[in-house]
Inverse folding.
């Protein structure tokens, strides 16, 4: 969706037009849900995050800075809300060493497409949140380096570094599971 | 395997992201030719990249959009004063929102809101034009249908955009004494009989345009496995 359309919708929202907000929701409902789902791998939590993000967006539209892309603003909220959930989860969980194979590791004889996708999602799930975030933004909402940098509030060089490391970790994990 | 040097790493990354220049592509090819370990790394990262791209986007749960859109029924708070709402409070707000707008639970649509936006921006003088289109969305069980009805004289154009994770069917119900199907995309998935035009909703994203002569309303019924998942009625006001 064009930035001008988003900007017009935001202006209309601020002028009190709640219908314009519905346009923003229609445009970004799916990517926001997917960001949360791939960060958390829990449909219920992803749904809750999506609700929270859009309601926060509505509540805080007056603080949105139009010099940034609207999607950057809303994806950043989705990432941050997801990170909050992950932090809460982590308090009660043992840290995971991403380079260690798990007990179920080992090349399976034959994996169908769904099983391969499951292995890939498992591998994403084992990434540290900062690596998971770049993978999610790259592959599930198709952001480029600059957009990822804006969303994550880091520089492009760091984006590239994290993305490469994340890909390496995934590659190692997928190789261990026999899908490469 | 030893760690790749920074240059090779940058080139592989750029290759995965489709950001290689012709000169860089040639340089990467030369490096890969010289180093079997680099070729193996490159191949595995390419495969990893493809596996990630092969994961389909998830379809948000039915009703999420309606619940979210109900949020603006609540007053906007100053930045930083946000308190997270529970699903139940949001649902309550949704019900309140429905009472306000008088909308059916399953009928809503982003383009409808765009229409509303046009109406509000144009301060009323173009409202007749804006009101000459009607939209509806039906969303259930991984099937999304966005329908738009436009009037062009005595011809009604019904555009149906569908996105389905699983197959379904959309029934377009008309009054055969007043309305008839005059044209559609050359599409074997569209069948007409009596008061109903049936559209098979295949997995994936599809857009179809049907043309009718006559007058609205036109009713839509989303079905899957013999069950009715949602209904909507489209109408077009005279401009």
């Amino acid at each position: 969706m064009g930035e001008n359309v988003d900007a017009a919708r935001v202006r209309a929202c601020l002028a009190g037009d709640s219908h314009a907000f519905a346009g923003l929701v229609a445009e970004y409902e799916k990517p926001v849900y997917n960001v949360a789902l791939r960060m958390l791998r829990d449909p219920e939590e992803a749904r809750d995050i999506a609700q929270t993000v859009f309601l926060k967006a509505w509540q805080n539209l007056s603080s949105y800075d139009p010099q940034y892309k609207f999607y950057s603003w809303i994806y950043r909220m989705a990432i941050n809300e997801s990170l909050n959930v992950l932090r809460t989860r982590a308090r009660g969980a043992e840290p995971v060493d991403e380079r260690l194979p798990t007990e179920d590791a080992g090349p399976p004889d034959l994996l169908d497409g769904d099983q391969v996708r499951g292995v890939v999602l498992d591998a994403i799930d084992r990434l540290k949140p900062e690596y998971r975030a770049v993978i999610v933004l790259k592959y599930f909402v198709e952001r480029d380096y600059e957009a990822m940098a804006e969303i994550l509030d880091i520089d492009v060089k760091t984006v590239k570094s994290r993305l490469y490391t994340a890909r390496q970790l995934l590659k190692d994990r997928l190789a261990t599971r026999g899908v490469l | 395997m030893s760690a790749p040097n920074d240059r090779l790493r940058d080139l592989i990354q750029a290759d995965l992201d489709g950001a290689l220049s012709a000169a860089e592509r040639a340089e990467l090819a030369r490096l890969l030719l010289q180093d079997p370990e680099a070729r193996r790394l490159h191949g595995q990262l390419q495969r990893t990249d493809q596996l990630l791209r092969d994961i389909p986007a998830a379809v948000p749960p039915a009703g999420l959009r309606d619940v979210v859109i109900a949020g603006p029924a609540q007053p906007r708070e100053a930045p930083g004063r946000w308190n997270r709402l529970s699903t139940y409070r949001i649902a309550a707000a949704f019900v309140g929102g429905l009472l306000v707008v008088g909308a059916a639970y399953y009928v809503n649509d982003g383009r409808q809101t765009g229409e509303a936006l046009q109406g509000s921006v144009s301060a009323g003088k173009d409202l007749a034009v804006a009101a000459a289109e009607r939209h509806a969305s039906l969303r259930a069980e991984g099937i999304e249908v966005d329908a738009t009805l436009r009037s062009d004289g005595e011809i009604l154009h019904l555009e149906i955009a569908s996105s389905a994770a699983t197959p379904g069917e959309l029934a377009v119900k008309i009054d055969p004494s007043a309305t008839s199907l005059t044209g559609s995309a050359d599409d074997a998935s569209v069948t007409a009989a009596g008061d109903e035009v049936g559209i098979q909703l295949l997995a994936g994203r599809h857009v179809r345009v049907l043309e009718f002569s006559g007058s609205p309303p036109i009713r839509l019924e989303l079905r899957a496995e013999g069950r009715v998942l949602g209904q909507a009625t489209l109408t077009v006001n005279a401009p």
About this structure: Chain A touches chain B through 59 residues (CB under 8 Å). The longest helix of chain A spans residues 18-40. Residues 159 and 166 of chain A are 10 Å apart (CA to CA).
